């Protein structure tokens, strides 16, 4: 009888310890789950800051190269450029880096995709029109929506092999490059138009002198 009581007490102790360990493990797991949510929120916030930095630099650069900047006095242009350079410098002081975890295959896919984009960029000066068309087909390859133009199927398969975060960055880079080309085209057309209008005015003035 006494032995039975001793055994019962020992079993009760083991049950209490087991129950306590399970509760503790459950609490720890719950804490880690909450921390995981905060870690992902931190990465998303840091990525948003990275994107905002890119957008700000692009906007500052766009203003510096805008047609409006060409149509003001030299003194005003110099003053505005000083302000723009100051803002660009302050923007560049913000350093945010979100590292993407990749397996070897994803790393190789990213290198391949980056190399293709760099090759197109290097052709800008030689053939801007063809480079723009190529970039549009690359950008369509990154879109989840129905594309409006041709799609580079080979590039699409390469991008699919990249990590999800890299896929977003590749698409963002292509969109930025296309916007820069569009802005360059507009600036060139406006410049040609202003030159044409100026030449026409000079011709009219010259003709009026002879009449």
From TrEMBL:
<dbReference type="InterPro" id="IPR003103">
    <property type="entry name" value="BAG_domain"/>
</dbReference>
<feature type="domain" description="BAG">
    <location>
        <begin position="109"/>
        <end position="189"/>
    </location>
</feature>
<feature type="coiled-coil region">
    <location>
        <begin position="25"/>
        <end position="59"/>
    </location>
</feature>
<feature type="coiled-coil region">
    <location>
        <begin position="164"/>
        <end position="194"/>
    </location>
</feature>
<keyword id="KW-0175">Coiled coil</keyword>
<keyword id="KW-0597">Phosphoprotein</keyword>
<comment type="subunit">
    <text>Binds to the ATPase domain of HSP/HSC70 chaperones. May interact with NWD1. Interacts with HSPA1A (via NBD), HSPA1B (via NBD) and HSPA8. May interact with DNJC9; the interaction seems to be histone-dependent.</text>
</comment>
<dbReference type="GO" id="GO:0045862">
    <property type="term" value="P:positive regulation of proteolysis"/>
</dbReference>
<dbReference type="GO" id="GO:0031397">
    <property type="term" value="P:negative regulation of protein ubiquitination"/>
</dbReference>
<dbReference type="GO" id="GO:0051087">
    <property type="term" value="F:protein-folding chaperone binding"/>
</dbReference>
<protein>
    <recommendedName>
        <fullName>BAG family molecular chaperone regulator 2</fullName>
    </recommendedName>
</protein>
<dbReference type="InterPro" id="IPR037689">
    <property type="entry name" value="BAG2"/>
</dbReference>
<keyword id="KW-0007">Acetylation</keyword>
<dbReference type="GO" id="GO:0000774">
    <property type="term" value="F:adenyl-nucleotide exchange factor activity"/>
</dbReference>
<keyword id="KW-0143">Chaperone</keyword>
<comment type="function">
    <text>Co-chaperone for HSP70 and HSC70 chaperone proteins. Acts as a nucleotide-exchange factor (NEF) promoting the release of ADP from the HSP70 and HSC70 proteins thereby triggering client/substrate protein release.</text>
</comment>
């Amino acid at each position: 009888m006494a032995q039975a009581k001793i055994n019962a007490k020992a079993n009760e102790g083991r049950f209490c310890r087991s129950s306590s360990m399970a509760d503790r493990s459950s609490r720890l797991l719950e804490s880690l789950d909450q921390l995981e949510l905060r870690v992902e929120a931190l990465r998303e916030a840091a990525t948003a800051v990275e994107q905002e930095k890119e957008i700000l630099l692009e906007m500052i650069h766009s203003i510096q190269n805008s047609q409006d900047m060409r149509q003001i006095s030299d003194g005003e242009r110099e003053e505005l450029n000083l302000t723009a350079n100051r803002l660009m410098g302050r923007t560049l002081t913000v350093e945010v880096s979100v590292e993407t975890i990749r397996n070897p295959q994803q790393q190789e896919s990213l290198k391949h995709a980056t190399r293709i984009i760099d090759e197109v960029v290097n052709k800008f000066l030689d053939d801007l029109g063809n480079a723009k068309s190529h970039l549009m087909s690359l950008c369509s390859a990154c879109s989840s929506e129905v594309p409006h133009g041709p799609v580079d199927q080979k590039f699409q398969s390469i991008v699919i092999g990249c990590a999800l975060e890299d896929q977003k960055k590749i698409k963002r880079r292509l969109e930025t490059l296309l916007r820069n080309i569009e802005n360059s085209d507009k600036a060139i057309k406006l410049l040609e138009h202003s030159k044409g209008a100026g030449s026409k005015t000079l011709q009219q003035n010259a003709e009026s002198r002879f009449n």
